Amino acid sequence: MGLRGKALLSGVSLAVGAALGAAVAGWRLRGDPGSVWVQAAAELSVPPAAGVTRFGLPGFAQLKSRESHVLSYDPRLRGPAWVLEQLNAERVQGTATRQSCDFREDESVHHYHRAGNSDYLGSGFDRGHLAAAANHRWSQKAMDDTFLLSNVCPQNPHLNRITWNKLEKYCRGLTKSNKNVYVCTGPLFLPRMEPDGKMYVKYQVIGKNNVAVPTHFFKVVVLEKFSGELELRPYIMPNSPVDENTPLERFLVPIERIERAAGLLFVPNLMKSTNKLQAITAGGK
Q1: CA 56 → CA 41, 42, 74, 178, 280, distances in Å?
Q2: 4-24+60-279, what's its fold?
Q3: Residue-wise pLDDT tens digits, 218-238
Q4: Given this model, what pLDDT does residue 14 score?
Q5: Beta carbons of 218 and 229 less than 8 angstroms apart
Q6: Catalytic site positions
Q7: Which end of the chain has fewer surrounding CB within 10 Å, N or C?
Q8: Which residues catalyse the reaction (predicted)?
Q9: Strands 216-224, 180-188: pairing kind
């Protein structure tokens, strides 16, 4: 299921960068056990022609900050491009409950570009959280925010309820032995060869809003140790049933595979943040 990749770095902050739309944006996530905040710096190069932006720009990266997570929304997919969380021992415990939570449209997204609950009815797919509800028991509002459909992708029910759930539980368990666990999750649309010998990217859409069904999902986990070192664990899972006995280690991949497929950057920004790469190990198929 791919190569196993793991990187150890020193530092105390996680940087995530991506080229989104016409802008080149650098995002840095920092936080303490009580808060998560995002500092964004974007540079937009506009031709000097007079009045070129008179009627505004037709689109721009949609960065949304919630109580529990930060996400970049892709209007074409009717869902997130990536969702970023900070977990620690305090955040994964609390009294928040799912019983009062309902999936709902994200009204901050234009109605042309957002998913609705009706899109999922009869589709055969679950409304799969990218920022998991159980990751945010520390606050009812934080848990409620994970039920916005901007944090959701169509997910195979068997995957969602078994192996993906196992990975989410594993991430929460990592908070017992680490200062912070940063989790970036998102959809992938990977190419495959068709009978004509050519490579194609094909994916299903569901509902009247044509919500995109990912072919795969990624989860990039960065462990901030009490010593200050960072450990990187990148995973890819297919959006299909997976044998529940398959060890999670089988889904570890080189981080470069996710960076290339998703159009995101993790390692260069981690290195900028820490200025020191201590070790990289990879091996085994």
Answers
A1: 20, 17, 19, 45, 45
A2: Extracellular Endonuclease; Chain A (3.40.570)
A3: 999 999 999 888 889 999 999
A4: 38
A5: no
A6: 129
A7: C
A8: 129 (proton acceptor)
A9: antiparallel
